[in-house]
Specification:
Apoptosis, Tumor Necrosis Factor Receptor Associated Protein 2, Chain A, four-stranded antiparallel β-sheet, 288 residues, alpha+beta, elongated, 2 domains
Length: 288
């Protein structure tokens, strides 16, 4: 019995030692996990601190940017005031120049006024020279439904403080001439000075397709003229064109059949390096 107890005790002690060893091992593993968690928490704390610093920097930058924007807004507002005064001064000087010239020339007032408006020193007011590139490719794209028609030019003015206009071209033709001709027009658009200008108006447009022949003396531009008076509509022919509303264009004036595609490629040198030069001149009688 004693022998049995001695043997059992040894087994129990050995088992207890094994259990204690397993617990010690488990505790060491837990200690390692805790250490890793502490390291992760430290790294996370550092990341949060850095992120907080970044947010603070961005907030400061945002505040500085807002201050800069507000400052630029104030500067722009002030510049607009000066620009308005400058435009008024220029308009006054321009009017005085016209009046002086008209007085010097007697009854030839309209002639002098047109000469002043056309003077090159006034940045080519009342006319536009429009360079149109990739003509053949554009026609092909429109015909294959991969391109848009029409195309509009940059705006131009009848005078320093006059009517605002643009030129229009349907590269593949318009109406019955679609697919066969260049259709060319001009129209009045909503401008900055419309409120102080005379309405309605009856402009006359001269459209020119410029000959690019190197022989300057023998150049022969294609010139066609269209007036609002030519319109079939009685209201437009009699009254003229009314002031366009914002984001609205007036009636386009021009030619559906300005030049056929066949003539474009066979007549003279209108199309060179797949490029056209179109000149549009606008005359508006009794412009004020």
């Amino acid at each position: 019995m004693d022998d049995h107890l001695d043997e059992g005790l040894e087994d129990h002690l050995r088992l207890a030692c094994d259990v204690i060893q397993e617990q010690r091992t488990e505790m060491e593993l837990m200690r390692d996990r805790l250490k890793k968690q502490e390291d992760a928490i430290c790294q996370l704390t550092e990341s949060v601190t850095k992120l907080k610093a970044v947010v603070e920097d961005q907030t400061s930058a945002k505040d500085a940017l807002e201050k800069t924007i507000n400052k630029l807004y104030d500067i722009t507002k002030e510049q607009k005031k000066h620009q308005g005064k400058f435009e008024k001064d220029i308009k006054y000087q321009f009017t005085e120049l016209q009046n002086s010239a008209c007085n010097a020339q007697g009854d030839d007032k309209n002639s002098v006024r047109n000469d002043l408006i056309r003077y090159p020193g006034l940045n080519g007011y009342s006319e536009q020279v429009w360079r149109i590139t990739n003509v053949t490719r554009r026609i092909q794209r429109v015909q294959s439904r991969r391109g848009d028609d029409p195309t509009t030019s940059e705006p131009f003015y009848s005078s320093a403080f006059g009517y605002k206009m643009v030129a229009w071209i349907y590269i593949n033709g318009r109406g019955k001439e679609e697919g066969r001709s260049l259709s060319l027009y001009a129209c009045v658009t909503c401008g900055e000075y419309d409120a102080v200008l005379k309405w309605p108006i009856k402009p006359k447009y001269t459209f020119m397709l410029l000959d690019q022949s190197p022989d300057r003396e023998n150049r022969k531009d294609l010139v066609r003229t269209r007036r609002v008076n030519d319109f079939k509509r009685d209201d437009v022919r009699q009254k003229g064109i009314e002031r366009p509303l914002p984001h609205e264009r007036a009636i386009i004036v021009g030619f559906d059949d300005f030049l056929s595609h066949d003539e474009l490629t066979t007549s003279r040198r209108y199309l060179v390096d797949d490029t056209l030069f179109v000149r549009v001149i606008a005359d508006i009688p009794d412009e004020t």
